[in-house]
Amino acid sequence: MNLFDNSEITVVDIEDSIKTSYLDYSMSVIIGRALPDARDGLKPVHRRILYAMHNDESKSRTDFVKSARIVGAVIGRYHPHGDTAVYDALVRMAQSFSMRYPSITGQGNFGSIDGDSAAAMRYTEAKMSHLSHELLKDIDKDTVDFTPNYDGSEFEPDVLPTRVPNLLLNGSSGIAVGMATNIPPHSLDELVDGLLYLLDNKDASLEEIMQFIKGPDFPTGGIIFGKKGIIDAYRTGRGRIKIRAKTHIEQKGNKELIVIDELPYQTNKARLHEQIAELVKEKQIEGISDTRDESDKDGIRLVIELKKDAMSEIVLNNLFKSTTMESTFGVIMLAITNKEPKVFNLIELLNLFLNHRKTIIIRRTIFELEKAKTRAHILEGLKIALDNIDEVIALIKASEDSLSAKNSLMQQFNLSELQAVSILEMRLQRLTGLERDKIEQELKELLALIEELNSILKSEEKIEQIIKDELLEIKNKFKVPRITEIVDDYDDIDVEDLIPNEPMVITITHRGYIKRVPTKSYEKQKRGGKGKIAVTTYDDDFIESFFTANSHDTLMFVTDKGQLYWLKVYKIPEGSRTAKGKAVVNLINLAPDEKIMAIIPTTDFDDNKSLCFFTKNGIIKRTNLSEYQNIRSVGVRAINLDENDELVSALIAFNDGDDNFSDENEEGENIQEINEDLSEENNENEDNAAQDDYNKTMVFVATKKGMCIKFPLEKVRQIGRVSRGVTAIRFKEQDDCVIGAVVITSNEQEILSLSAKGIAKRTNAGEYRLQSRGGKGVICMKLTQKTKDLVGIVIVDESMDLMALTSSGKMIRTDMQSIRKAGRNTSGVIVVNVGSDEVVSIAKCPKEEDEEDEEIIQENDLGLNE
């Protein structure tokens, strides 16, 4: 015998073979293991567990049976996989913290929310929950199709004839090959109300349905923070739902306690407790003195004890940001329909369930109709026999055997075989008058039932009414109130209506402590005053920047890494004039080594505005402000910085109607910059032609060594967020750098310049000639040993005062109108009497009315050249 007979060999391409095998495996996992059916919401293992318990009479009204017995029945009859997989599925179906409505009632150790494992299957017992009966009801009435099990010895249902929308009720999660599902649980009452409304309003919109189905209802409670993720999930089948722990504040002496009552879904309580303790130990969260778990059989109680001076709201925000007290549930409503996986929206899933119920009711009605017809047919034969009882008895007595008797009855009385057999099997007691009346009454009722069942099959309206009645029955039988609260976050609601829109001074220190103080806390002083302490800093800390903004404004934080975050002003804790403030990392999601370089207030994100960035090395970048209106919690990229560069300033400018937005990459921008710079160097002498009548927006950039440059904003074209920018000014001195920039809309505006020694002046913008971008500029302020370096520039505004901040933390407020005007190449007058101290930054703030008469003070001129 030739073992290598060519006729027995099939040539197969290995690539095609692998593709085919992998696809077969993928579909097996997708359809047969990992994903739920859209109709009953069950994966095969869960369906087989319930069906095995149903067959073994492990029902809620019977005694508990060993879990090992149930697992054995499942793997022996229907599920040819490991017992551990089956038992794990059974355990989860019995956990009240995993299932909104548990399908199994367990007895024994079935695990805990602390992550404890369930006891071995030989120790635990289980039975079907009351709700599980509604999943299997009418399964014996030919309502669903059955298929052979894995060895063909028995049959199992393809789907259960569930009377509850189990997919949405208990949710589901699973990972298949190339896809995953994650469906949240919901409230039964809300689902029923939504289904009833959908039955009456076939074209109902999502907004109408969401009047009834508010959102997911998790078994562990908690708070769903914001509705946007819910709406996205219900509309598209995908969304991100933010869940927070439910807490309350208790007072213990002069301390506050944060008590956690409910946790986000699938959060491990013991691990959360350890996580909080670790963060406190590493000093990543401040203000916590102790944590303890006081949970018992009555519920969760995780206590966080705060220090005396700690603010509970800030600590809570930090806990939400840094721990699993806030988690995100990524919704993917993917399920199997017609043997194919598909992502559904909410209304599609509701309609699928209603269609499934219609199919079940039609098949059940047909089954009951056939059964009623068969019984009526038998009763009609019995009635004929009773009407002719003497002839029937005589015929039977004369027959040789039962077969001849059956044939004789069929022939003589025109009966069917089934009727003849029923007559032969009829007991003598049915010959009594009472039994005869019962047969006639039963036949009458059956004929009425047959008529009713036929009318149901002919009427869509009657089928839908049956669905409504059954849904209402379920709702009344298993009525449970919602336990997960749904609240709006501050992005969803306009909480600003509840907060006064007041001017505030915001200060931020080198170590990252921020606070806001009403501007009225700083009284106006005369020019040359000593100032007031603006903040008490730590020994190794100092105020790095400050500015003014209204409570309703949005603050955009730009960091040294080029990331941008934003925060409402009223979200910053208000402090006293001398308070240290709170760490900014408690308010925005900064990386550990990330430092804020610029903070820009804005009232809106109009696309008619640009956000301009200025760096120490003289780079300017301009991007449309609308690019920054959708900020994620981790921020967005604002600007790409060179390795030895850092952000100095960022400000908002109105566009002049130019339509030169570009989304080129950094490399393309650098090439453009080089070409422009070469052109500017060739035409450097042309800058002497003053353009005082220029009426468009201009950029004014000043340097530490007293130089400045003014050029049109439109010469800086708009580019995308992830870009470097172009050159604004070149430096004459090697150690020079940019210290500030402003936007000018008219040459009649005045620019206020202030030096490190508190000397300032006001100069008309028109005195600085218009130049090409990238030039070396002209003198902005004449600097000497008495003035030191230039530290800041601002646009003079009659409705605003000037605030100057010194390195020791002193802040002085003065009327800008009291500062004398001077020419471009001059120094100025003393504004801040700093002594050995130095001014580090300046800003504008709203004027404050002063009822007291001010003394007229002679200007303290230094005798400097003007």
TrEMBL record:
<comment type="subunit">
    <text>Heterotetramer, composed of two GyrA and two GyrB chains. In the heterotetramer, GyrA contains the active site tyrosine that forms a transient covalent intermediate with DNA, while GyrB binds cofactors and catalyzes ATP hydrolysis.</text>
</comment>
<feature type="region of interest" description="Disordered">
    <location>
        <begin position="846"/>
        <end position="866"/>
    </location>
</feature>
<feature type="short sequence motif" description="GyrA-box">
    <location>
        <begin position="525"/>
        <end position="531"/>
    </location>
</feature>
<feature type="active site" description="O-(5'-phospho-DNA)-tyrosine intermediate">
    <location>
        <position position="123"/>
    </location>
</feature>
<keyword id="KW-0963">Cytoplasm</keyword>
<feature type="coiled-coil region">
    <location>
        <begin position="664"/>
        <end position="691"/>
    </location>
</feature>
<dbReference type="InterPro" id="IPR006691">
    <property type="entry name" value="GyrA/parC_rep"/>
</dbReference>
<dbReference type="InterPro" id="IPR035516">
    <property type="entry name" value="Gyrase/topoIV_suA_C"/>
</dbReference>
<keyword id="KW-0547">Nucleotide-binding</keyword>
<dbReference type="Pfam" id="PF00521">
    <property type="entry name" value="DNA_topoisoIV"/>
</dbReference>
<protein>
    <recommendedName>
        <fullName>DNA gyrase subunit A</fullName>
        <ecNumber>5.6.2.2</ecNumber>
    </recommendedName>
</protein>
<keyword id="KW-0238">DNA-binding</keyword>
<feature type="compositionally biased region" description="Acidic residues">
    <location>
        <begin position="848"/>
        <end position="858"/>
    </location>
</feature>
<dbReference type="Pfam" id="PF03989">
    <property type="entry name" value="DNA_gyraseA_C"/>
</dbReference>
<dbReference type="InterPro" id="IPR013760">
    <property type="entry name" value="Topo_IIA-like_dom_sf"/>
</dbReference>
<feature type="coiled-coil region">
    <location>
        <begin position="436"/>
        <end position="463"/>
    </location>
</feature>
<comment type="function">
    <text>A type II topoisomerase that negatively supercoils closed circular double-stranded (ds) DNA in an ATP-dependent manner to modulate DNA topology and maintain chromosomes in an underwound state. Negative supercoiling favors strand separation, and DNA replication, transcription, recombination and repair, all of which involve strand separation. Also able to catalyze the interconversion of other topological isomers of dsDNA rings, including catenanes and knotted rings. Type II topoisomerases break and join 2 DNA strands simultaneously in an ATP-dependent manner.</text>
</comment>
<dbReference type="InterPro" id="IPR050220">
    <property type="entry name" value="Type_II_DNA_Topoisomerases"/>
</dbReference>
<keyword id="KW-0175">Coiled coil</keyword>
<dbReference type="InterPro" id="IPR005743">
    <property type="entry name" value="GyrA"/>
</dbReference>
<dbReference type="InterPro" id="IPR002205">
    <property type="entry name" value="Topo_IIA_dom_A"/>
</dbReference>
<keyword id="KW-0067">ATP-binding</keyword>
<keyword id="KW-0799">Topoisomerase</keyword>
<comment type="similarity">
    <text>Belongs to the type II topoisomerase GyrA/ParC subunit family.</text>
</comment>
<feature type="domain" description="Topo IIA-type catalytic">
    <location>
        <begin position="35"/>
        <end position="498"/>
    </location>
</feature>
<dbReference type="InterPro" id="IPR013757">
    <property type="entry name" value="Topo_IIA_A_a_sf"/>
</dbReference>
<dbReference type="InterPro" id="IPR013758">
    <property type="entry name" value="Topo_IIA_A/C_ab"/>
</dbReference>
<keyword id="KW-0413">Isomerase</keyword>
